[in-house]
Design a protein that fits this description.
The protein is α+β, with helices and mostly antiparallel strands. The protein has helices at about 45-70, 85-95, 165-175, 185-190, 195-205, 235-245, 255-275, 305-310, 320-330, 335-350, 355-360, 365-375, 385-400, 450-470; strands spanning about 10-15, 20-25, 30-40, 80-85, 105-110, 115-120, 135-140, 210-215, 220-225, 230, 285-290, 315, 405-410, 425, 430-440. It is globular. It catalyses: 1D-myo-inositol 1,3,4,5,6-pentakisphosphate + ATP = 1D-myo-inositol hexakisphosphate + ADP + H(+).
Length: about 500
């Protein structure tokens, strides 16, 4: 990147979260990620530059030295911090302002520091040339937590039976965050059983919320930009996807078109999720099972009879879901067991505030961090060192629980012979694919009390709402066979 030749017209708005805004290059597979600040916060260029650089460098170091060793070299792209001309940044800010969702405009893009994080655009394949006529597509999945807590510190039995995501849906619906409750359950996706995974993905497509997005050539074609702006027309999505799965024009049409194309998409996603970076042959890899806690959630809508017969196949050892799940399970004491340990650290820091740097509460996230987290002892010896390690393990687990999986796909030309492990064969086409993991920022240490409070609110509201009234009977939207019909909602 030639920073002295930056032109704001070569960049476009890509998306944003609560803490950062992302723009993508119109030609190259690059994105720039800028920090955001409250609109009323006064700008101090010197302070902003120092804080922004430190914040962004921490993100890079955490991704590179902590998350990459846990999740795998091929899945994580940590990027680099770049310093850009302030005039370019300010012109870019003006350019993208009109494209931002209104609900996000309470914060403004950092225009004072000039620092940004430069990353590959993971909505596009990084390893091959793709045709202009059929641009790459990308499926972004935010899978959430894939296991039930098994800690003895859990005080409400319902947490051993119903997953956090399914319980949280009740509170989000009541608060007006979403208009409809999602039937997706993360434990179905993480089961490794293709039938349960297919069921989970169909539920994500039916009610995407912020857990599923589909991009075409970097542009969102399905999913929610925020809780008020959603693109969820499955018939329109089918028209986008047909050239990828059925290249011959007119090969598929009529009322079964949507179902057939969506099933092809789901099969491809499942294959990508179960393959590892070295092979696409999912059946030849040693499986990893959830050895502690139950493998299914009582709130899942997956057919109970099939669950009783056994439907937990286990995940291939090095597939992306297995890597994420293993990092998530670093949270082995649950927030209820962690909160007293957090208080132990806080009490110590209150007495010895200068120790915060030595204990690396806020970084630096160097290579030693990974070794400390990986080799953490299981028994509490009452020390501050033990408490700090468990807190840091929890923060890694929380990052893994909130990360996104990016599956990029592009038709494989007949004259190209890529590595076999980069290709998925569908019924009528060959697709080159890549799998990456995104959103790997360190979770704030100071956020632990909020997580403890939120956990109680979610559990208590779920118990109240399910005990106060029995849920009305819900029609079985999906048949037990692979040939399922999706229910379309108007939006």
């Amino acid at each position: 990147m030639e920073v002295d030749k930056m032109d704001e017209n070569e960049w476009k708005y890509h998306g944003e979260g609560n803490k950062s805004l992302v723009v993508s290059h119109v030609e190259h597979s690059q994105v720039l990620r800028f920090l955001k600040y409250p609109a009323e916060e006064p700008g101090n260029s010197h302070k902003a530059a120092k804080e922004a650089f430190g914040h962004l460098q921490n993100i890079v170091d955490f991704s590179k030295n902590v998350m990459k060793p846990f999740l795998g070299e091929n899945y994580v792209h940590h990027g680099e911090v770049v310093h850009l001309p302030l005039d370019f940044v300010r012109q870019l800010s003006l350019k993208v302002e009109q494209e931002r969702p209104e609900s996000r405009c309470d914060k403004v893009m950092d225009i004072f520091s000039g620092y940004a994080l430069c990353l590959p655009n993971l909505t596009k394949l990084q390893t091959c040339h793709f045709s202009e006529s059929v641009p790459p597509i990308c499926i972004e999945i935010k899978p959430k937590c894939g296991f039930l807590p098994f800690s003895s510190h859990v005080t409400k039995d319902v947490k051993h039976r119903v997953c956090r995501f399914c319980m949280h849906q009740h509170l989000k619906l009541a608060n007006g965050k979403w208009k409809r409750m999602s039937r997706y359950c993360p434990l179905d996706l993480f089961s490794g059983n293709k039938q349960r995974m297919s069921f989970a993905l169909k539920n994500l497509l039916q009610e995407a919320q912020n857990n599923l997005k589909i991009f075409k050539n970097g542009e969102l074609i399905y999913g929610c930009k925020d809780d008020k702006d959603c693109l969820q027309d499955l018939n329109a999505l089918t028209q986008h996807l047909k050239p990828y799965f059925f290249p011959a024009n007119g090969l598929i049409h009529g009322p079964h078109c949507t179902r057939t194309v969506i099933n092809e998409l789901i099969n491809v996603i499942t294959t990508a999720l179960l393959s590892n970076s070295g092979t696409c042959r999912t059946g030849e890899i040693r499986k990893v099972h959830i050895s502690e806690g139950r493998a299914h959630c009582d709130a899942s809508h997956f057919h109970r009879d099939i669950l009783r017969k056994g439907s937990h196949s286990g995940l291939p050892k090095d597939c992306v879901l297995s890597k994420i799940l293993q990092a998530q399970m670093l949270d082995n004491v649950d927030i209820e067991g962690l909160h007293p340990l957090y208080n132990r650290v806080e009490q110590y820091l209150g007495e010895f505030p200068k120790e915060r740097i030595k204990l690396q509460i806020d970084g630096p996230y160097n290579e030693n961090c990974f070794e400390k987290l990986r080799n953490s002892q299981s028994e509490d010896d009452g020390t501050v060192d033990y408490a700090v390690r468990k807190v840091q393990q929890y923060r890694v687990a929380m990052t893994a629980k909130d990360c996104s999986i990016m599956i990029a796909l592009s038709p494989c030309p007949d004259d190209e012979l890529p590595e076999p492990n980069l290709v998925i064969q569908t019924s009528k086409s060959r697709l080159i694919y890549s799998v990456s993991i995104l959103d790997l920022d360190p979770k704030p240490y100071e956020n632990i009390p909020h997580q403890y409070k939120l956990d109680g609110q979610i559990v208590n509201f779920y118990l109240k709402s399910t005990q106060a009234k029995q849920d009305p009977p819900t029609p079985n939207l999906f048949m037990d066979s692979e040939d399922c019909t999706l229910v379309l909602h108007s939006v």
